[in-house]
Amino acid sequence: MDDEAALIDGLRRRDPQAFTLFFETYADRVYRLAYGIVGNEADAEEAVQATFISALEAIDRFEHHARLGTWLYRIAYNHALMILRRRRPEESLPDEDDALPMPSALADWSTLPEDRLLSREAQEVLRKAIAELPTTLRAAFVCRDIEGLSTADCAQIIGISEGALKVRLHRARLMLRERVSEYFGEWVAPENG
Amino acid sequence: MTCEELIAHLSSYLDHEMDAALVAEVQEHIARCRNCRVVLDTTQRLIVLVHDEGRRVIPASQRSALFERLQQAFLNRPQTLENSNLRTAEDSAV
After folding, report:
1. Which of A100, A124, B50, B64 is the most buried (most CB within 10 A)?
2. Residues 6 or more apart in contact with residue B54 via CB below 8 angstroms
3. Around A94, how many Cα atoms within 13 Å sit in the side-chain half-sphere?
């Protein structure tokens, strides 16, 4: 029996140690994904709680052909979306067939020193820019570029094809780059003349 | 390769999902196009930044309370028929 099968078996037997391992392994990951979608700590925490409760209720029906982490992320994604819809019921989603706008913020901030880009101010710019992405694009971005999951896993979690995932990720990156460049660009403008 | 084509292929290039011939075209283009080079470099830096700084964890002040709540829910979970069938013979013998 591999580690994951042993963990699932422990959860089914209500072994407290299995629960501790389950929580320690996945709680922060689920929290990050949820935070990326809902954009604040309280809602992300609510999503973690709902995710674990749903998962523990369904663990007896979990089928081994899915991976536990991907299965859990998918539950978390759905809970986060439900919470978000409660908060922002009328968000209009972008038409993914629209032509991509060409980038227009062209200051080269990529060579700014690390401490500037890791400053609290820069992090706040990033956090806000991510939060302002349309939900469909943000989910793809958080899953791939923040959580670092594979395209196949992200597509499965979000419930779309790998091709659609790549399109959303690409649009999210360009949109985010544009927004943060408008801000970070000002930090290099004096040097560029 | 035009600027429009480069922008359309940017993510495939950054994710190493592009064939060698196209990679060569991208590199040739950015060697002579400052704007596309900036878009590529800033996008790449952005991805590294969010990955490194996005390692958010549950705030310590909330973590243990959340653990306790979920542990209680876990331990008090009703036993399902399916679950009881999965119990080992040793458990059943007790």
Report:
1. B50
2. A32, A36, A142, A145, A146, A147
3. 18
- Report yes or no: B18 at the A interface, CB cutoff 8 Å: no
Domains of chain A: residue spans and CATH: 3-87 (1.10.1740.10), 114-192 (1.10.10.10)
Q: What angle do the packed helices A120-131 and A162-192 form, to 10 degrees?
A: 140
Closest-approach residue (CA) in chain B for A126: B50
Q: B55 CB near a chain A CB, below 8 Å? A: yes
Q: In this structure, are residues B55 and A31 in contact, taking their beta carbons and an 8 Å threshold?
A: no
> Would you call B90 an interface residue with chain A, using a CB distance cutoff of 8 Å?
no
What token pair was written down for B92?
Answer: 């059943």
Q: Are A11 and A19 in contact (CB under 8 A)?
A: yes
The interface predicted TM-score (ipTM) is 0.88
pLDDT(B56) > 90: no
Q: How far apart are CA A109 and CA B26, in angstroms?
A: 21
Residues of chain B found within 8 Å of residue A23, distances taken between Cβ atoms: 67, 70-71
Q: How far is CA A93 from CA A56, A96, A134, A135, A166, in A?
A: 32, 9, 6, 7, 17
Residues of chain A in contact with residue B46, where contact means CB-CB under 8 angstroms, are 173, 176-177, 180
- In this complex, the residue of B51, B71, B75 whose CB is nearest that of residue A145 is B51
**Among the listed ranges A13-27, A101-115, A152-166, which one has the minimum average pLDDT value?**
A101-115
Distance from the A186 Cα atom to the nearest Cα atom in chain B, whole angstroms: 14
C-beta of residue A153 within 8 angstroms of C-beta of residue A68: no
Q: How many CB pairs under 8 A join A and B?
A: 128
Task: Tell me the per-residue pLDDT of A111-141, one tens digit each, with 9 for 90 and over.
Answer: 999 889 989 999 999 999 999 999 999 999 9
Across the interface, which of A13, A16, A20 has its CB nearest the CB of B87? A13
